[in-house]
Here is the input.
Amino acid sequence: SQFKSGFSWTLYDYLKAHYGYWHKTISKDAIMRLFGVETKKTYQNNTSLFKQYVLDAAIDEINQFTELDVRYNEQKRGRSIIGFDLIW
Here is the structure.
């Protein structure tokens, strides 16, 4: 209940819903839909801004305020990021 970001609640609920897993591969489009930012052109065109302001912010708060230890690996095709492998 100490989360400052709504993105943290969204990711925390997603991870708790997948109880029993220890990692989950998710495409960039699917994770953007999960957070509700799929229509933001800034995040569609610049994945580093999405990572910085949405994904990393949510993961930092979850790691700080909950029992989970979350990290991710990027899935790439060439130079572009096509997905993420969430590990917890």
About this structure: The first strand starts at residue 23 and ends at 27. The CA atoms of residues 32 and 39 lie 9 Å apart. The chain has one domain: 6-87. The two ends are 20 Å apart (CA to CA).
